[in-house]
Amino acid sequence: MLQNTGFSQEATPYSRINEQFKRLGVDEEGLNNLNHILIENGISEEKIEKAKRGILGAVREVPEIGNEFILSERIQNYLSNDLSLSDEQIKIIKALASRISYQKKGTEQKQTGINERFISLGLNNEGITKMEAELIAIQIPKEKIEKVKRGILGCYRETPKEEEEFILSERIKNYLTVDLNLTSAQIDLVKTIAMRISKNVK
User: Nearest Cα to 95, choosing from 50, 59, 57?
Assistant: First the structure.
């Protein structure tokens, strides 16, 4: 719910900053939480977007886990001199940057794992790309694609013999309808893709 923050939905510098966060895996709820954390730690509302720009810069400098996180002089000066943030506030910026960076790396590893599973079932990278395009074409949002692919793998494990009706288990049905809020048409496509993969494997 960014619409509740009062920020314009047009292509302003603010919305472009938020788009960069979304590309890092931070959804709208996460953006709202991030705004609240900054405000709760004494960063004034007029500095929020500039502080978020500082977080984006800091994300690029997050080290591997276990290594000390030392900001570059450029980012340190931006936060301490340009924004006049305190040492404690800069620690919050670094903590938020670290969380975003490590979450993104974890998500990328999960996505790689899902794609490797499809490859083991006979799809190549081109086939995975075409499958993703099919999902997007039926109005499945890009941010749901990886979760839907996980649902396809679940459906694949439940595909029946050709002469039997394809009835999803309660667990998979709930995942697709309740967790992902897919329509009947979208679920039919998920089942069709699962059946197609199953036939290729057989």
Answer: 59
